[in-house]
From TrEMBL:
Keyword annotations from UniProtKB, A to Z: Membrane, Transmembrane, Transmembrane helix, Transport
Bilayer-spanning residue ranges: 29-50, 103-125, 132-153, 159-184, 205-228, 272-294
PROSITE patterns xrefs: ABC_TM1
CDD domains per the UniProt record, alphabetical: TM_PBP2
Species, as recorded: Paraburkholderia antibiotica
Principal subcellular localization: membrane
Protein name: Carbohydrate ABC transporter permease
Length: 304
């Protein structure tokens, strides 16, 4: 009877009021507790690295791992960048930084261009055997790198590209091509075929349609490809160690030489500073371009 009276008194057109949930329900408290625990689990190592990198060694030896520094100093950062020993050379990790830049930029551009052209051709032109070619490319994406190291060493040595900048760029381009082809092929597969057919009727050829129609529409997936390639190539260790040569060792290899040195004193503050410096580029890419990555994935990277 009370419910009927309340419904008769409610003005017409107004929805019944929903019961208000408690702001601190057990379920909400459980979600917050889980999120805080997960955040602490992932942020605690970063906190230890940052705190250790700004402490002098005399303070680190006291063993207070989580304590804030009583004597704040950036000497470890300066040493890691300018004077840390990466083997016989003591020029810091900056040499590896510029080596990584010289490797990442051409490798990223070449792998994206090759992947975009492959995806465009497999989506619209569909030459004979396109399905088989696409399957072979996908198979190459799942072959472990370690299985292909020795054959690639022999191939590059036979063409005089082993231990050279061009050689490591070619290697990263080859290993990035299957994933880039998959991304662009699936993205172009979500574009209506009518656009391509209209361009063909207007007299557009292979390259004209690609550069004037498809490429301007590919900004979201290009951003996704750049993020994936930059972070993947920058974080690579095994390929840079094997194929780059002593003059082109990337930052990750030189970081390993700093941390795993067997001579002298273990400078944990310098090691932490060098580790953070090495990871700054991937972290910066994710923080700056994270929303573009999500947009690119949502606009077709996983369609098709």
């Amino acid at each position: 009877m009370n419910t009927l009276d309340a419904s008769l008194k409610r003005p017409p057109g107004r929805a019944p009021a929903r019961p208000r949930r408690s702001a601190l329900s057990p379920a909400r408290l459980g979600i917050y507790a889980f999120l805080l625990t997960a955040a602490a689990f992932f942020l605690l190592p970063l906190y230890v690295m940052l705190v250790t990198s700004v402490k002098p060694m005399s303070e680190i030896r006291l063993g207070n791992l989580l304590a804030l520094p009583t004597h704040f100093t950036l000497d470890a950062w300066s040493a890691a960048w300018q004077s840390a020993c990466t083997g016989l050379d003591c020029n810091g990790i900056r040499v590896g930084f510029w080596n990584s830049v010289r490797i990442v930029v051409p490798s990223t551009l070449l792998s994206i261009v090759v992947g975009a052209v492959n995806g465009y051709a497999l989506s619209f032109w569909r030459p004979r055997g396109a399905g088989l070619l696409f399957g072979v490319l996908l198979l190459g994406a799942f072959i472990p790198v370690q299985v292909m190291v020795y054959p690639l060493v022999r191939v590059l040595a036979s063409v005089h590209l082993f231990s050279s900048l061009l050689g490591i760029v070619v290697i990263h381009t080859v290993f990035g091509m299957p994933v880039m082809t998959l991304l662009f092929r699936n993205y172009y597969a979500s574009i209506p075929q009518e656009l391509f057919k209209a361009a063909r009727i207007d007299g557009g050829g292979f390259w004209r349609i690609f550069f004037q129609l498809m490429l301007p529409m590919s900004t979201p997936i290009v951003v996704v490809a750049i993020i994936m390639q930059v972070t993947g190539i920058w974080n690579d260790f095994i390929l840079g160690l094997v194929f780059a040569g002593t003059k082109n060792l990337p930052m990750t290899v030189q970081l390993n030489n700093i941390i795993n040195t067997t001579t002298g004193e273990r400078l944990y503050n310098v090691n932490m500073a060098a580790t953070i410096l090495t990871s700054m580029v991937p972290l910066g890419v994710y923080f700056i371009s994270g929303r573009w990555f999500v947009r690119g994935i949502a606009s077709g990277a996983v369609k098709g």
